[in-house]
Amino acid sequence: MSKTISINAGSSSLKWQLYLMPEEKVLAKGLLERIGLKDSISTVKFDGRSEKQVLDIEDHTQAVKILLDDLKRFNIIESYDEITGVGHRVVAGGEYFKDSALVDEEVIQKVEELSLLAPLHNPANAAGIRAFREILPDITSVVVFDTSFHTTMPEKAYRYPIPTKYYTENKVRKYGAHGTSHEYVAKEAAKVLGRPIEELKLITCHIGNGASITAVDKGVSVDTSMGFTPLGGVMMGTRTGDIDPAIIPYLMQYTDDFNTPEDISRVLNRESGLLGVSEKSSDMRDIHEAMRAGDAKAQLANDIFVDRIQKYIGQYLAVLNGADAIIFTAGIGENSVTIRRLVVEGISWFGCNVDPEKNVYGAEGVISSPDAKVKVLVIPTDEELVIARDVERFKNQ
Protein backbone atom coordinates (compact mmCIF):
# COMPACT_ATOMS: atom_id res chain seq x y z
CA MET A 1 0.00 0.00 0.00
CA SER A 2 1.17 3.50 -0.78
CA LYS A 3 -0.15 7.04 -0.79
CA THR A 4 -0.39 9.05 -3.97
CA ILE A 5 -1.35 12.69 -4.24
CA SER A 6 -3.04 14.22 -7.30
CA ILE A 7 -2.32 17.89 -7.96
CA ASN A 8 -4.20 20.42 -10.08
CA ALA A 9 -2.34 23.73 -9.88
CA GLY A 10 -3.88 26.98 -11.06
CA SER A 11 -2.27 30.39 -11.30
CA SER A 12 -3.35 31.28 -7.77
CA SER A 13 -4.65 27.94 -6.49
CA LEU A 14 -3.64 24.37 -5.81
CA LYS A 15 -6.27 21.62 -5.63
CA TRP A 16 -5.18 18.24 -4.28
CA GLN A 17 -6.46 14.78 -3.35
CA LEU A 18 -4.60 12.09 -1.39
CA TYR A 19 -5.29 8.45 -2.20
CA LEU A 20 -4.45 5.13 -0.59
CA MET A 21 -3.36 3.06 -3.57
CA PRO A 22 -4.07 0.71 -5.20
CA GLU A 23 -7.32 0.65 -3.22
CA GLU A 24 -8.20 4.09 -4.69
CA LYS A 25 -9.46 5.21 -1.30
CA VAL A 26 -9.59 8.98 -0.79
CA LEU A 27 -7.85 9.82 2.48
CA ALA A 28 -8.08 13.60 2.25
CA LYS A 29 -8.54 16.42 -0.19
CA GLY A 30 -8.16 20.13 -0.15
CA LEU A 31 -7.69 23.45 -1.86
CA LEU A 32 -5.25 26.32 -1.40
CA GLU A 33 -6.65 29.56 -2.79
CA ARG A 34 -5.35 33.09 -3.38
CA ILE A 35 -1.71 31.99 -3.65
CA GLY A 36 0.46 35.09 -4.01
CA LEU A 37 -2.21 37.29 -2.43
CA LYS A 38 -2.98 38.36 1.10
CA ASP A 39 -5.45 36.32 3.15
CA SER A 40 -4.82 33.08 1.28
CA ILE A 41 -7.07 30.19 2.27
CA SER A 42 -6.10 26.56 2.87
CA THR A 43 -8.92 24.02 3.26
CA VAL A 44 -8.40 20.37 4.22
CA LYS A 45 -11.23 17.81 4.22
CA PHE A 46 -10.85 14.38 5.83
CA ASP A 47 -12.86 11.95 7.99
CA GLY A 48 -15.98 14.08 7.58
CA ARG A 49 -14.16 17.16 8.87
CA SER A 50 -13.31 20.39 7.11
CA GLU A 51 -10.46 22.50 8.47
CA LYS A 52 -9.76 25.97 7.12
CA GLN A 53 -7.05 28.49 7.85
CA VAL A 54 -6.38 31.98 6.48
CA LEU A 55 -2.75 32.96 5.98
CA ASP A 56 -0.45 34.59 3.44
CA ILE A 57 0.95 32.13 0.88
CA GLU A 58 3.68 33.69 -1.25
CA ASP A 59 4.09 31.04 -3.96
CA HIS A 60 3.39 27.44 -4.96
CA THR A 61 6.44 26.10 -3.08
CA GLN A 62 5.10 27.51 0.16
CA ALA A 63 1.63 26.19 -0.72
CA VAL A 64 3.03 22.65 -1.12
CA LYS A 65 4.85 22.94 2.22
CA ILE A 66 1.63 24.04 3.94
CA LEU A 67 -0.29 21.19 2.29
CA LEU A 68 2.21 18.56 3.46
CA ASP A 69 2.47 20.03 6.95
CA ASP A 70 -1.33 19.97 7.23
CA LEU A 71 -1.31 16.26 6.36
CA LYS A 72 1.02 15.67 9.30
CA ARG A 73 -0.73 18.14 11.61
CA PHE A 74 -4.05 16.34 11.19
CA ASN A 75 -2.40 12.89 11.49
CA ILE A 76 -3.38 11.96 7.95
CA ILE A 77 0.25 10.91 7.49
CA GLU A 78 3.00 10.47 10.06
CA SER A 79 5.84 11.42 7.73
CA TYR A 80 6.47 12.59 4.18
CA ASP A 81 7.91 9.15 3.43
CA GLU A 82 4.39 7.72 3.26
CA ILE A 83 3.78 9.66 0.05
CA THR A 84 5.34 7.60 -2.72
CA GLY A 85 3.87 9.28 -5.78
CA VAL A 86 2.53 12.57 -7.07
CA GLY A 87 0.62 13.19 -10.28
CA HIS A 88 0.29 16.62 -11.84
CA ARG A 89 -2.45 17.71 -14.20
CA VAL A 90 -1.01 19.65 -17.14
CA VAL A 91 -3.32 21.16 -19.72
CA ALA A 92 -1.18 21.33 -22.88
CA GLY A 93 1.13 18.52 -23.98
CA GLY A 94 1.31 19.64 -27.59
CA GLU A 95 2.77 17.09 -29.98
CA TYR A 96 5.51 16.26 -27.49
CA PHE A 97 3.35 14.13 -25.21
CA LYS A 98 0.92 11.50 -26.43
CA ASP A 99 0.84 9.88 -22.99
CA SER A 100 1.64 10.77 -19.40
CA ALA A 101 5.34 11.07 -18.56
CA LEU A 102 7.76 10.75 -15.67
CA VAL A 103 8.96 14.15 -14.54
CA ASP A 104 12.50 15.29 -15.23
CA GLU A 105 13.96 18.69 -16.02
CA GLU A 106 13.45 18.24 -19.77
CA VAL A 107 9.76 17.44 -19.25
CA ILE A 108 9.28 20.52 -17.06
CA GLN A 109 10.97 22.71 -19.66
CA LYS A 110 8.67 21.37 -22.36
CA VAL A 111 5.64 22.04 -20.14
CA GLU A 112 6.84 25.62 -19.74
CA GLU A 113 7.54 25.92 -23.48
CA LEU A 114 3.97 24.78 -24.21
CA SER A 115 2.59 27.67 -22.16
CA LEU A 116 1.99 29.30 -25.55
CA LEU A 117 -0.82 26.78 -26.03
CA ALA A 118 -2.34 27.17 -22.55
CA PRO A 119 -1.27 30.55 -21.15
CA LEU A 120 -3.73 30.41 -18.25
CA HIS A 121 -2.69 26.91 -17.17
CA ASN A 122 0.74 25.55 -18.11
CA PRO A 123 2.79 28.13 -16.19
CA ALA A 124 0.88 27.31 -13.00
CA ASN A 125 1.12 23.56 -13.72
CA ALA A 126 4.91 23.89 -14.06
CA ALA A 127 5.12 25.89 -10.82
CA GLY A 128 3.32 23.10 -8.97
CA ILE A 129 5.64 20.45 -10.43
CA ARG A 130 8.77 22.39 -9.44
CA ALA A 131 7.40 22.99 -5.95
CA PHE A 132 6.90 19.28 -5.30
CA ARG A 133 10.28 18.36 -6.76
CA GLU A 134 11.93 20.81 -4.39
CA ILE A 135 10.31 19.33 -1.30
CA LEU A 136 9.86 15.66 -2.32
CA PRO A 137 12.55 15.07 -4.96
CA ASP A 138 12.71 11.26 -4.72
CA ILE A 139 9.09 10.16 -5.14
CA THR A 140 7.54 8.98 -8.41
CA SER A 141 6.44 12.17 -10.13
CA VAL A 142 4.19 11.98 -13.19
CA VAL A 143 2.64 14.58 -15.47
CA VAL A 144 -0.78 13.76 -16.91
CA PHE A 145 -1.85 15.81 -19.91
CA ASP A 146 -5.34 17.04 -20.77
CA THR A 147 -4.43 16.70 -24.43
CA SER A 148 -3.27 13.05 -24.42
CA PHE A 149 -6.74 11.53 -24.80
CA HIS A 150 -7.25 13.57 -27.97
CA THR A 151 -4.12 12.37 -29.77
CA THR A 152 -6.31 9.71 -31.41
CA MET A 153 -8.13 12.32 -33.49
CA PRO A 154 -7.76 11.77 -37.25
CA GLU A 155 -5.84 14.40 -39.18
CA LYS A 156 -9.01 15.67 -40.83
CA ALA A 157 -10.25 16.63 -37.34
CA TYR A 158 -7.11 18.18 -35.90
CA ARG A 159 -5.77 20.08 -38.91
CA TYR A 160 -6.87 23.63 -39.69
CA PRO A 161 -7.45 24.76 -43.30
CA ILE A 162 -4.50 27.18 -43.28
CA PRO A 163 -1.21 26.83 -45.20
CA THR A 164 0.48 23.53 -44.36
CA LYS A 165 3.71 25.24 -43.31
CA TYR A 166 2.00 26.61 -40.19
CA TYR A 167 1.38 23.05 -39.10
CA THR A 168 4.73 21.60 -40.09
CA GLU A 169 6.81 24.53 -38.86
CA ASN A 170 4.69 26.04 -36.07
CA LYS A 171 2.60 23.03 -34.94
CA VAL A 172 -0.68 24.91 -35.35
CA ARG A 173 -3.39 22.26 -35.01
CA LYS A 174 -6.25 21.24 -32.71
CA TYR A 175 -5.03 19.75 -29.43
CA GLY A 176 -8.15 19.82 -27.24
CA ALA A 177 -8.24 19.73 -23.44
CA HIS A 178 -10.10 18.15 -20.49
CA GLY A 179 -8.94 14.78 -21.82
CA THR A 180 -8.73 13.09 -18.41
CA SER A 181 -12.33 14.09 -17.71
CA HIS A 182 -13.68 12.99 -21.09
CA GLU A 183 -11.85 9.66 -20.84
CA TYR A 184 -13.10 9.01 -17.30
CA VAL A 185 -16.77 9.80 -17.89
CA ALA A 186 -16.84 7.85 -21.18
CA LYS A 187 -15.62 4.72 -19.39
CA GLU A 188 -18.03 5.26 -16.50
CA ALA A 189 -20.92 5.77 -18.91
CA ALA A 190 -20.17 2.39 -20.50
CA LYS A 191 -20.47 0.82 -17.05
CA VAL A 192 -23.78 2.58 -16.39
CA LEU A 193 -25.14 1.50 -19.77
CA GLY A 194 -23.90 -2.05 -19.24
CA ARG A 195 -22.19 -2.22 -22.62
CA PRO A 196 -18.56 -2.51 -23.75
CA ILE A 197 -17.14 0.91 -24.54
CA GLU A 198 -15.85 -0.54 -27.81
CA GLU A 199 -19.48 -0.73 -28.98
CA LEU A 200 -20.49 2.80 -28.03
CA LYS A 201 -20.69 6.20 -29.67
CA LEU A 202 -20.68 8.85 -26.95
CA ILE A 203 -20.77 12.65 -26.75
CA THR A 204 -19.17 13.83 -23.53
CA CYS A 205 -19.92 17.36 -22.33
CA HIS A 206 -17.47 18.75 -19.79
CA ILE A 207 -19.27 21.95 -18.86
CA GLY A 208 -17.76 24.13 -16.17
CA ASN A 209 -16.13 27.55 -16.15
CA GLY A 210 -14.07 25.98 -18.91
CA ALA A 211 -16.12 23.81 -21.25
CA SER A 212 -15.50 21.31 -24.02
CA ILE A 213 -17.48 18.72 -25.95
CA THR A 214 -15.90 15.50 -27.28
CA ALA A 215 -16.99 12.84 -29.76
CA VAL A 216 -15.90 9.43 -28.43
CA ASP A 217 -16.08 6.45 -30.78
CA LYS A 218 -15.26 2.99 -29.39
CA GLY A 219 -13.54 4.59 -26.40
CA VAL A 220 -11.27 6.99 -28.27
CA SER A 221 -11.55 10.69 -29.01
CA VAL A 222 -12.27 11.41 -32.66
CA ASP A 223 -13.02 15.12 -32.33
CA THR A 224 -13.24 17.74 -29.61
CA SER A 225 -14.37 21.35 -29.38
CA MET A 226 -11.33 23.02 -27.81
CA GLY A 227 -8.70 23.77 -30.39
CA PHE A 228 -5.11 25.00 -30.68
CA THR A 229 -5.63 26.35 -27.15
CA PRO A 230 -8.44 26.00 -24.58
CA LEU A 231 -9.93 29.21 -26.00
CA GLY A 232 -11.66 27.42 -28.87
CA GLY A 233 -15.02 25.67 -28.98
CA VAL A 234 -18.11 26.53 -26.96
CA MET A 235 -18.67 29.74 -25.02
CA MET A 236 -17.26 29.55 -21.47
CA GLY A 237 -17.17 31.51 -18.23
CA THR A 238 -14.68 34.13 -19.43
CA ARG A 239 -13.58 32.71 -22.81
CA THR A 240 -15.18 33.40 -26.17
CA GLY A 241 -15.09 29.95 -27.68
CA ASP A 242 -15.20 30.04 -31.49
CA ILE A 243 -15.43 33.47 -33.11
CA ASP A 244 -14.79 34.82 -36.61
CA PRO A 245 -11.00 35.42 -36.75
CA ALA A 246 -11.60 38.62 -38.74
CA ILE A 247 -12.99 40.20 -35.56
CA ILE A 248 -9.45 40.51 -34.20
CA PRO A 249 -7.89 42.68 -36.97
CA TYR A 250 -11.13 44.66 -37.15
CA LEU A 251 -10.98 45.56 -33.44
CA MET A 252 -7.23 46.22 -33.72
CA GLN A 253 -8.03 48.84 -36.36
CA TYR A 254 -11.08 50.46 -34.81
CA THR A 255 -10.57 50.26 -31.02
CA ASP A 256 -7.78 50.86 -28.54
CA ASP A 257 -8.38 47.56 -26.75
CA PHE A 258 -6.36 45.29 -29.09
CA ASN A 259 -2.95 46.94 -29.32
CA THR A 260 -0.77 43.96 -28.37
CA PRO A 261 -0.98 40.14 -28.40
CA GLU A 262 -1.34 40.35 -24.61
CA ASP A 263 -4.37 42.62 -25.01
CA ILE A 264 -5.99 40.19 -27.41
CA SER A 265 -5.34 37.20 -25.16
CA ARG A 266 -6.65 39.03 -22.09
CA VAL A 267 -9.92 40.12 -23.70
CA LEU A 268 -10.68 36.78 -25.35
CA ASN A 269 -9.57 34.58 -22.42
CA ARG A 270 -10.48 36.61 -19.35
CA GLU A 271 -13.11 39.21 -20.24
CA SER A 272 -15.46 37.41 -22.61
CA GLY A 273 -17.90 34.48 -22.40
CA LEU A 274 -20.63 34.64 -19.79
CA LEU A 275 -18.85 37.52 -18.08
CA GLY A 276 -18.49 39.59 -21.22
CA VAL A 277 -22.07 39.17 -22.42
CA SER A 278 -23.78 39.46 -19.04
CA GLU A 279 -21.44 42.20 -17.74
CA LYS A 280 -22.20 40.63 -14.39
CA SER A 281 -20.45 37.31 -13.68
CA SER A 282 -18.68 34.29 -15.13
CA ASP A 283 -20.53 32.01 -12.70
CA MET A 284 -23.67 30.34 -14.07
CA ARG A 285 -25.30 30.47 -10.64
CA ASP A 286 -25.05 34.26 -10.68
CA ILE A 287 -26.33 34.33 -14.25
CA HIS A 288 -29.41 32.32 -13.34
CA GLU A 289 -30.08 34.43 -10.26
CA ALA A 290 -29.94 37.56 -12.43
CA MET A 291 -32.23 35.94 -15.01
CA ARG A 292 -34.84 35.31 -12.33
CA ALA A 293 -34.67 39.02 -11.51
CA GLY A 294 -35.37 39.88 -15.16
CA ASP A 295 -31.83 40.78 -16.26
CA ALA A 296 -31.87 40.74 -20.09
CA LYS A 297 -28.09 40.55 -20.49
CA ALA A 298 -27.92 37.54 -18.17
CA GLN A 299 -30.70 35.89 -20.17
CA LEU A 300 -28.78 36.47 -23.39
CA ALA A 301 -25.58 35.06 -21.90
CA ASN A 302 -27.46 31.93 -20.88
CA ASP A 303 -29.10 31.61 -24.30
CA ILE A 304 -25.80 31.91 -26.20
CA PHE A 305 -24.17 29.39 -23.86
CA VAL A 306 -26.91 26.81 -24.46
CA ASP A 307 -26.96 27.51 -28.20
CA ARG A 308 -23.23 26.86 -28.62
CA ILE A 309 -23.37 23.58 -26.70
CA GLN A 310 -26.32 22.40 -28.79
CA LYS A 311 -24.48 23.23 -32.01
CA TYR A 312 -21.42 21.21 -31.00
CA ILE A 313 -23.53 18.24 -29.97
CA GLY A 314 -25.21 18.48 -33.38
CA GLN A 315 -21.81 18.49 -35.10
CA TYR A 316 -20.72 15.40 -33.23
CA LEU A 317 -23.92 13.54 -33.96
CA ALA A 318 -22.85 14.03 -37.58
CA VAL A 319 -19.20 13.10 -36.93
CA LEU A 320 -20.26 9.88 -35.17
CA ASN A 321 -23.23 9.24 -37.49
CA GLY A 322 -25.45 9.03 -34.42
CA ALA A 323 -24.79 8.47 -30.74
CA ASP A 324 -25.79 6.08 -28.02
CA ALA A 325 -25.56 8.64 -25.22
CA ILE A 326 -24.82 12.24 -24.28
CA ILE A 327 -22.99 12.66 -20.96
CA PHE A 328 -22.94 15.80 -18.81
CA THR A 329 -20.11 16.37 -16.34
CA ALA A 330 -18.09 19.07 -14.50
CA GLY A 331 -19.44 21.94 -12.39
CA ILE A 332 -22.33 23.13 -14.55
CA GLY A 333 -22.95 19.81 -16.27
CA GLU A 334 -23.23 17.96 -12.97
CA ASN A 335 -25.15 20.58 -11.02
CA SER A 336 -27.32 22.71 -13.31
CA VAL A 337 -30.70 21.10 -13.85
CA THR A 338 -31.65 24.09 -16.01
CA ILE A 339 -28.73 23.89 -18.43
CA ARG A 340 -29.16 20.14 -18.95
CA ARG A 341 -32.87 20.58 -19.63
CA LEU A 342 -32.43 23.50 -22.03
CA VAL A 343 -29.63 21.85 -23.99
CA VAL A 344 -31.49 18.58 -24.47
CA GLU A 345 -34.87 20.18 -25.19
CA GLY A 346 -33.32 21.96 -28.15
CA ILE A 347 -32.00 18.76 -29.76
CA SER A 348 -34.90 16.43 -28.96
CA TRP A 349 -35.46 15.67 -32.68
CA PHE A 350 -32.49 13.29 -32.45
CA GLY A 351 -34.34 11.10 -29.96
CA CYS A 352 -33.01 12.37 -26.64
CA ASN A 353 -34.87 13.80 -23.69
CA VAL A 354 -34.64 14.35 -19.95
CA ASP A 355 -37.08 12.93 -17.45
CA PRO A 356 -38.06 15.78 -15.05
CA GLU A 357 -38.21 13.31 -12.15
CA LYS A 358 -34.63 12.19 -12.85
CA ASN A 359 -33.14 15.51 -13.90
CA VAL A 360 -32.72 16.88 -10.39
CA TYR A 361 -29.88 18.37 -8.39
CA GLY A 362 -27.46 15.63 -7.37
CA ALA A 363 -28.61 13.30 -10.15
CA GLU A 364 -26.20 10.59 -11.31
CA GLY A 365 -26.58 8.04 -14.07
CA VAL A 366 -29.33 8.01 -16.70
CA ILE A 367 -31.68 11.01 -16.59
CA SER A 368 -33.56 10.30 -19.83
CA SER A 369 -36.74 8.29 -20.18
CA PRO A 370 -36.54 4.52 -20.85
CA ASP A 371 -37.67 4.97 -24.46
CA ALA A 372 -35.05 7.61 -25.36
CA LYS A 373 -33.15 6.65 -28.49
CA VAL A 374 -30.12 8.63 -27.30
CA LYS A 375 -29.63 8.23 -23.57
CA VAL A 376 -28.71 11.26 -21.45
CA LEU A 377 -26.45 10.72 -18.44
CA VAL A 378 -24.91 12.70 -15.62
CA ILE A 379 -21.51 11.32 -14.57
CA PRO A 380 -19.49 13.21 -11.93
CA THR A 381 -15.96 13.55 -13.23
CA ASP A 382 -12.93 12.41 -11.25
CA GLU A 383 -9.82 13.74 -12.93
CA GLU A 384 -7.82 13.29 -9.74
CA LEU A 385 -8.45 9.53 -9.77
CA VAL A 386 -7.31 9.28 -13.40
CA ILE A 387 -4.11 11.06 -12.38
CA ALA A 388 -3.54 8.74 -9.39
CA ARG A 389 -4.07 5.69 -11.59
CA ASP A 390 -1.43 6.94 -14.02
CA VAL A 391 1.05 7.39 -11.17
CA GLU A 392 0.45 3.75 -10.19
CA ARG A 393 0.99 2.69 -13.79
CA PHE A 394 4.43 4.28 -13.81
CA LYS A 395 5.30 2.88 -10.38
CA ASN A 396 4.62 -0.62 -11.67
CA GLN A 397 6.64 -0.30 -14.89
From TrEMBL:
Checking SUPFAM superfamilies in the record gives: Actin-like ATPase domain
Keyword terms: ATP-binding, Cytoplasm, Kinase, Magnesium, Metal-binding, Nucleotide-binding, Transferase
Among the entry's GO cellular component annotations, what is one? cytoplasm
| Record localization | Cytoplasm
Q: So what does this thing catalyse? A: acetate + ATP = acetyl phosphate + ADP
The GO terms describing molecular function are: acetate kinase activity; ATP binding; magnesium ion binding
**The record's free-text note on cofactor binding:** Mg(2+). Can also accept Mn(2+).
Example GO biological process? acetyl-CoA biosynthetic process
**What Gene3D superfamilies does UniProt report for this protein, alphabetically?**
3.30.420.40
Residues holding substrate: R89
Residues that bind ATP: K15, H206, I207, G208, N209, G210, D283, M284, R285, G331, I332, G333, E334, N335
Q: What is its EC number?
A: 2.7.2.1
Q: Which PANTHER family does UniProt cross-reference here? A: ACETATE KINASE, ACETATE KINASE-RELATED
Q: How does it assemble?
A: Homodimer.
Describe the task this protein carries out. Answer: Catalyzes the formation of acetyl phosphate from acetate and ATP. Can also catalyze the reverse reaction.
State the name under which the record lists this protein: Acetate kinase
Q: Which organism is it from?
A: Streptococcus sanguinis SK355
